[in-house]
């Protein structure tokens, strides 16, 4: 196809797909089915990969989603979303009962025991019968508006039959074990990192920017909390569940009235035993007082109701044989030891490997190869070896000794003073380089889709990519790459498009991607927000850097050391020449330049967290630092401001209140 013809076709496809997106996301009234949409989208992708220069910004392939906001809006809960206190044994439950008895004054109450679903809490708001908002818990006061994604959950009706104008129901969004396995299988095939557990997968899915992915993944929900209890003729939790069910919202059917803590305990024992057989994960049992009239009397703490409690299942511990201990090298050269295990079932999954952390961990516990070991899988975390069982066989086993050489490049491992870990300090260690490249391309860094570890290993071993700058040169190596196993024209073009796109990232992604010690994702953002470009950052001295709010001496030193190395300076220069953006691109909607170059210190108690004000000020151009000096332009002072206020007064630094800040921002 000629370019002119392709251009017209691309324009036509983009227009059509955007129209369908509008119908689908905005009007909830699609005129074509998903299959037809997908077909056209595939055609568009195909064309765009043949003519990457014709990809336009408004193409649905370039937008993270159809019409879902690229960032989730904040939404303030009408009533805070509380969490629950925990119980770990029967005594804790008896104490819980005792307190209720005391507060209530009599025993005229029952318990309702139900499963604690291991998912994410959600609040559904229906206005005039229509699903108006679906909001995550967030910090309990303000959550994120994930309505577009929740609308993709088949079980959640977009309309309910209710006489109430405003109906709010809270519950849990979750992924079934089967669905979770399916997603991870797909991810494994695509060489993508796997989700650790169904809850993480559900969270990742709910925060997906592309609602179509959400639709594919079959999230589910159980609702368990009806908010407008006063306006209805419902007296108990059990009544409210029935009402939620009558609204056609999904309710978990395993809940049960219990007359006493003994009965609650029977319920707990029953579900601890059958937990593995349930189609979804649970991490405990929630026990609620059934009668609403008692709730006010029993009361609340600042974060939790006193009329409910969560019994948490203990982490499951199993015994198995440790077959071997093998070290792996991370991008910083740090050695992590892992155990290969005789496969064992824990909490519904087969565990074949577990972490042993570092050499000290193994030696302190005297863990030996071929020993029987106890393994723990606490909820989501990677399984961990807890200890070796010192049985009669154990004494016959050899005491384990740490590796002395890097398993990949064989150079001597070293211990950095004051740290427990061993490091491979060879800057040319292939594993370290490949892991650094992987980090550079990862989602939180440059976000180059398609540059998986497998491909990086291949391109590195072929010496096509030797450092991160080489990534931006692979367009010239088309012939060589296409000759590599499993590399088609299409994947090559997709990769080139992703690499090209990453060049214009806001530069905190680049800074994070460089893998400088102690410069994590958040720190990189703070630095770039403060100094606007990497070039500026390279000129700043230790004193000034360490003054930045959240940037301590360790980060400042690490950063300065890194920029002082000639090879690193050269790398930055190479990246500039290759057209990689070095500047901060503000993606915040409430941003401006009004405090550009102003140095501001925050002190005292404000109406919101200091982090909130820091972000706000930084988004508006300020540099927020830790201590007041002659260079400080403003001190934002809340209640009970102490020594910083005194110092600011002495140095005649302008002191502003929250209200002053508000009016300064409004004025501009
Ligand atoms: S009731 C005010 N019931 O557990 C009471 N919570 O640790 C609100 N959860 O944030 C919660 N299953 O996300 C309740 N059957 C259930 C639950 C449940 C899971 C979650 C929920 C809550 C957390 C508290």
Folded structure, characterized:
With 668 residues, the protein is α+β, with helices and mostly antiparallel strands. It folds into six domains: 3-54, Helix Hairpins (Orthogonal Bundle); 74-312, D-amino Acid Aminotransferase, Chain A, domain 1; 316-396, Nucleic acid-binding proteins (OB fold (Dihydrolipoamide Acetyltransferase, E2P)), CATH 2.40.50.140; 430-502, Orthogonal Bundle (DNA polymerase, domain 1); 507-577, 5' to 3' exonuclease, C-terminal subdomain (DNA polymerase, domain 1, Orthogonal Bundle); 599-667, Rossmann fold. The chain has 25 helices and 22 strands. A five-stranded mixed β-sheet has the order 2-11-10-3-9, with helices on one face. The chain has a five-stranded antiparallel β-sheet with strand order 14-13-12-15-16. Strand 12 (316-329) and strand 13 form a beta hairpin. It binds 2-(butylsulfanyl)adenosine (IVH).
Quantity of strands, as a count: 22
Number of helices: 25
- pLDDT averaged over residues: 88
Structural class: alpha+beta
- The top level CATH class name of the largest domain: Alpha Beta
- How would the global form be characterised? globular
- From the 3D structure, determine the CATH topology of the largest domain: D-amino Acid Aminotransferase, Chain A, domain 1
Strand content: 15-25%
Question: What keyword list fits this structure?
Answer:
binds 2-(butylsulfanyl)adenosine; Helix Hairpins; 19% strand; 5-stranded mixed beta sheet; D-amino Acid Aminotransferase, Chain A, domain 1; alpha+beta; 5-stranded antiparallel beta sheet; OB fold (Dihydrolipoamide Acetyltransferase, E2P); 668 residues; 6 domains; 25 helices
